[in-house]
């Protein structure tokens, strides 16, 4: 953006400033620390100027919003046209309680829904499975059959709201239930809108919730992609998630790199299946974490968009603009919340949410201040939602598109994050002999991702213990007494109520129809057909989550990771 003469002049002026103005003060007073770094330990300079971004090409590297490479945002008008979707993650107890919370959030101005499931549903187990005892409805809503979904969406028109489902190994079952519910409500399948997390690769990398091994898991994910392309064009069948990679302790760069690598692995798998990249890529979506280092986070989001657009074009031959736009949901960093002085979390969440907005997110969840203690109460979830509304309507952050674009510091950090992220992606590609898909599978098998994340996490913890990394209220400014917020408790009778409903459904349904539907699913597996249509039929017959997932487990077995063996 500057020619060599301009840069020369700036370099000279910088030297003069350093000698005459900066050094005397630095020598006299010093700096607060020997080293300044982001929460991911990325060292930052004291001051950035045009020489730090001398190779930045405005047209090629930044461009305009809504245009390739989308560094400045995926939409031409961004939040001036429409603010991001305010999508609070919610779910607990039975479908009735979560339905009530959904209505509460909609009544308070939330613009999208996001469903949290309990552990049995997440793991594809029924509430009456012995392994589910004590977990039913605890950390999210319990869903065993289509009946629960009917209650969960009672009074909510599926053609009027977009819904996100945080569900992974059992995602195909919940996806099938949502489709069945739309059929029941008379809403055409092509009008339902929403997102299924369904990102199995990151499960093997970070969150570690799986039922069957990586390869067949990936195959089923691709079935859902194919089904979504054919039947539900407004559904995002995968939300390729860096959130949990970051929560497991990765750096911002690792979060971006591993997530994009997972994304490219899904792209390659679908292409190997014979799908056209421009047919399915517009339905891919992403999900990132937003942590405390404001500028690093903004740089991460901007770098992510630039890399995605370039790689989709150059490696996979994407032509449609929508195939190259990295659209993402953001959640503020749960791991950064403290149980001590919980009200301080409101401030952390505000900074992290602002980073998401300044970074151009499409959808946002702001954590509630009491989440280090329990599931959010109505009061804390309202404050979290109001935080987004204040950013949107009071701060002015939504009024200028990519307001940090052109900041020497942010542009320089964007380039640095991009470069380091690409180095990781290339390394993963090499592990797979030129295939990112195979590289990711190999990396999982070798425990590569696990080790990389573990090292970063260990380093962070050491910095906290040394006091290099400050956590206000924990290793600095701690106090004895503290506010104890009122916390939400899931009523102990939840499990009984859920079990009663499940046995009622089992009594009322036609067992033969269930058997036949499960046999059809087995046939689809045996004949290597897409399993989604058979799952839709099975849920319509009120087959349970566990019955359907058991078919897959019987076919493919379970998975044991080989951490430490490589
Ligand atoms: C693509 C995203 C990211 C966002 O989708 P949304 O529908 O919300 O937003 P969107 O697509 O950007 O916008 C909706 C529609 O408005 C249009 N639109 C938006 N802004 C526009 C603008 N400025 N100009 C013109 N059009 C615009 C879009 O084109 C789109 O329409 P068209 O579609 O017609 O183009 C999706 O996948 C999503 O909502 N993800 C949410 C994931 C989530 O909630 N996960 C929770 C995980 S929670 C978790 O994992 C738990 C972690 C833990 O706590 O442990």
Strand order of the largest sheet: 1-10-9-8-7
Hetero groups: succinyl-coenzyme A
Q: Categorize the overall geometry.
A: globular
State the helicity in percent bands. 40-55%
Give the mean pLDDT: 96
Quaternary structure annotation: single chain
- Which CATH class? Alpha Beta
Alpha-carbon distance between the termini? 47 Å
From the 3D structure, determine the CATH topology.
TIM Barrel
Radius of gyration (Å): 24 Å
* CATH homologous superfamily assignment: Methylmalonyl-CoA mutase
Kindly state the number of beta strands.
10
Flag low-confidence runs: none
Query: In DSSP terms, counting alpha (H) and pi (I) runs of 4 or more, how many helices?
Result: 23
CATH architectural grouping: Alpha-Beta Barrel
GO molecular function: cobalamin binding; methylmalonyl-CoA mutase activity
InterPro entries: Cbl-dep_enz_cat, MeMalonylCoA_mutase_a/b_cat, MMCoA_mutase_a_cat
Domain Methylmalonyl-CoA mutase alpha/beta chain catalytic: 38-557
Region (Disordered): 1-22
3D architecture notes:
It is a single chain. The protein is α/β, with parallel strands linked by helices and 566 residues long. Helix content is 52%, strand content 7%. The chain has a single domain, classed as Methylmalonyl-CoA mutase (TIM Barrel, Alpha-Beta Barrel), CATH 3.20.20.240. It has a five-stranded parallel beta sheet. Helix 4 runs parallel beside helix 6, helix 13 packs parallel to helix 15 and helix 13 crosses helix 17. The site of succinyl-coenzyme A has 27 residues, from helix 3, strand 4, strand 8 and strand 9. This is Methylmalonyl-CoA mutase. GO terms for molecular function: cobalamin binding; methylmalonyl-CoA mutase activity. Keywords: Isomerase. It comes from Haladaptatus paucihalophilus DX253.
């Amino acid at each position: 953006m500057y020619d060599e003469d301009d840069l020369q002049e700036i370099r000279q002026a910088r030297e003069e400033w350093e000698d005459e103005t900066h050094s005397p003060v630095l020598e006299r007073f010093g700096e607060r620390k020997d080293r300044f770094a982001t929460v991911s330990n990325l060292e930052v300079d004291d001051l950035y100027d045009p020489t730090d971004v001398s190779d930045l090409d405005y047209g090629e590297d930044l461009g305009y919003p809504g245009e390739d490479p989308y560094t400045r945002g995926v939409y031409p008008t961004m939040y001036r046209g429409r603010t991001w979707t305010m999508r609070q993650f919610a779910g607990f107890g039975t479908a009735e309680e979560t339905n009530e919370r959904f209505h509460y959030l909609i009544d308070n101005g939330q613009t999208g829904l996001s469903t949290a499931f309990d552990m049995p549903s997440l793991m594809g187990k029924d509430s009456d499975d012995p392994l589910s005892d004590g977990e039913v409805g605890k950390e999210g809503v319990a869903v065993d059959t289509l009946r629960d979904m009917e209650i969960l969406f009672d009074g909510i028109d599926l053609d009027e709201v977009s819904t996100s489902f945080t569900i992974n190994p059992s995602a195909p079952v919940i996806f099938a239930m949502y489709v069945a519910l739309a059929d029941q409500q008379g809403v055409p399948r092509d009008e339902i809108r929403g997102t299924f997390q369904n990102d199995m690769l990151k499960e093997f990398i970070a969150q570690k919730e799986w039922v069957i091994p990586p390869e067949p898991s990936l195959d089923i994910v691709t079935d859902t992609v194919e089904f979504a392309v054919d039947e539900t064009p407004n559904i995002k069948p995968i939300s390729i998630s860096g959130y949990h990679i970051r929560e497991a302790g990765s750096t911002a760069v690792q979060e971006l790199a591993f997530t994009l690598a997972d994304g490219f692995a899904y792209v390659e798998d679908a292409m190997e299946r014979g799908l056209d990249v421009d047919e399915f890529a517009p339905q891919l979506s992403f999900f990132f974490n937003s942590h405390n280092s404001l500028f690093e986070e903004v740089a991460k989001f901007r770098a992510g968009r630039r890399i995605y657009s370039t790689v989709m074009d150059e490696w996979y031959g994407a032509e449609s603009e929508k195939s190259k736009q990295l659209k993402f949901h953001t959640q503020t960093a749960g791991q950064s919340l403290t149980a001590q002085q919980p009200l301080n979390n409101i401030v952390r969440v505000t900074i992290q949410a602002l980073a998401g907005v300044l970074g151009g997110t499409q959808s946002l969840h702001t954590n509630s201040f009491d989440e280090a203690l329990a599931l959010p109460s109505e009061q804390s979830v309202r404050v979290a939602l109001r935080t987004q509304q204040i950013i949107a309507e009071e701060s002015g952050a939504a009024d200028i598109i990519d307001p940090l674009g052109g900041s020497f510091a942010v542009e320089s950090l964007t380039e640095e994050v991009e470069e380091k992220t690409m180095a990781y992606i290339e390394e993963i590609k090499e592990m797979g002999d030129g295939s990112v898909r195979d590289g990711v599978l190999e990396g999982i098998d070798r425990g590569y991702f696990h080790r990389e994340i573990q090292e970063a996490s260990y380093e962070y913890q050491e910095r906290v213990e040394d006091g290099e990394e400050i956590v206000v209220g924990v290793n600095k400014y701690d106090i004895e007494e503290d506010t104890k917020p009122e916390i939400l408790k899931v009523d102990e009778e939840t499990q009984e109520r859920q079990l009663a409903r499940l046995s009622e459904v089992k009594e009322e349904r036609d067992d033969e129809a269930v058997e036949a539907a499960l046999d059809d699913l087995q046939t689809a597996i045996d004949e290597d057909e897409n399993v989604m249509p058979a799952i839709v039929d099975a849920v319509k017959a009120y087959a349970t989550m566990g019955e359907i997932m058991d078919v897959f487990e019987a076919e493919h077995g379970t998975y044991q990771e080989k951490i430490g063996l490589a």
